[in-house]
Amino acid sequence: MEVMRIKPTIAINDNGFLFDPNTGESYTTNPVAREIIFMMKQNLPESDIRKAIISRYDVDEVTLEKNLIDFMAMLRHYNLCEEPGQ
């Protein structure tokens, strides 16, 4: 199963600051979003990302699923990711 990936040109620092050199836009993320993006850059499957977040944070699967869907939609909206097969 292929996973959605952060575009390789997107830079992210340890503080969660994202920069898109193609548009010049920058974004700030919270610690959980930063972790998810780092895992996406490592091409981890969504199932591994879910397991990691559930093990590190006090969140139930339903809440995580909803928030992860919203977060992925935001990444797509700002054109920060590549869909599987791209």
What does this protein structure show overall?
By secondary structure, the protein is of the alpha+beta class. It has a single domain (5-82), classed as Arc Repressor Mutant, subunit A (Orthogonal Bundle), CATH 1.10.10. It contains three helices and five strands, in the order ββββαααβ. The chain has helices spanning 31-41, 46-56, 61-77; strands spanning 5-6, 11-12, 17-20, 25-28, 81-82. The strands form two sheets. It has a three-stranded antiparallel sheet, with helices on one face. Strand 2 (11-12) and strand 3 (17-20) form a beta hairpin. The longest helix has 17 residues, at 61-77. It is globular. The model has no long low-confidence stretch (mean pLDDT 89).
Question: Can you lay out the helices and strands and say which pair or pack?
Answer:
Layout: E1 5-6, E2 11-12, E3 17-20, E4 25-28, H1 31-41, H2 46-56, H3 61-77, E5 81-82
Q: Order of helices and strands, N to C?
A: EEEEHHHE
Structural class, from secondary structure content?
alpha+beta
End-to-end CA span: 14 Å
| Percent range of helical residues | 40-55%
The third-level CATH topology is: Arc Repressor Mutant, subunit A
Strand order across the biggest sheet?
Answer: 2-3-4
Annotation, overall tally of beta strands: 5
**Averaged pLDDT:** 89
From the spread of the alpha carbons, the general shape counts as globular
Instruction: Identify the CATH architecture.
Output: Orthogonal Bundle
Radius of gyration: 13 Å
**Beta-strand content bin:** 15-25%
